[in-house]
Predict the structure.
Amino acid sequence: MIDYHLHLWPHTQRDKNLTLDFIASYWEKACELGISEIAITEHLFRFKQADWLLSKWWECEEDSLLLRHSMENYWYMHIGADLDVYVDTIIEAKKAGIAVKLGLEVDFYRGKMDKVAKLLSDYPFDVLLGSVHWISTWRFDDLSDQISMDEWSLRDAKTAWSRYLGSLEELLETKVVDVIAHPDLIKVAGFFPDEGFKREFESSLVEIIIKSELVTELSSAGWRKPVNEQYPSIFVLSELTKRNAKFTLASDAHNINDVGSKVNKLRDILHSLGLYKIAAFTQRTVKEINLYDS
Ligand SMILES: [Zn+2]
Ligand SMILES: [Zn+2]
């Protein structure tokens, strides 16, 4: 088994020093669960290099002042770590014998993805996850933020789901990332459109993923959220399987307790769909490994 989506720090934590011991503790927990390879995939927006590149990106977005302010606060709460130290520490962990991949979780910054690609090309990443966590400046998945959650009662779910899909498609078209993280994250807070629209959304999501030729993440994080199901839905998974899509497994842990969380349950889902291979990455090149030997 693999866990290809791990964060080092909870969203609320401000100090962000990374040590080899810290990675070793994640690895120890993963080994206890029978996981043979992990990828550390911290958010790009944790690093001061992202701020130098993308600072005040929200000012170009057409949203309410309230939402833009909220995004500004969120951004500066998270910025602080040094990408060079992060990369060096993970390389050190590899040299120490830990089966860890150097990754990053990358959001969609409209019109700025070429700059993001240029920054990231300076580092020896193994895998880059692509994510949509916000629609313009609305953090639709920030369950702890009242301003963001209040938006769900002000907006039509169909429009929110459509706009999410549009941003995801634009992100995938940039070809900056390797894996589509939590592909139907828009369901996180449990606000669904009607069944017919949901099915249309899911079919379009499948087409977008297949067209991108990227790997899809199967994530257990949704079981820890109001929606209480894995990402993506079983319908999306089974359609992707029929179209020969490739998958990684992911907990999206933000602390050691969630490392490897329910990854075995994800493996069982893939097995039930008749899949016996899984995707792993080295230097951004995908290789399929056995679901059970991995
Ligand atoms: Zn994410
Ligand atoms: Zn994540």
User: Anything to note?
Assistant: The chain has one domain: 2-290. DSSP finds ten helices and nine strands in the chain.
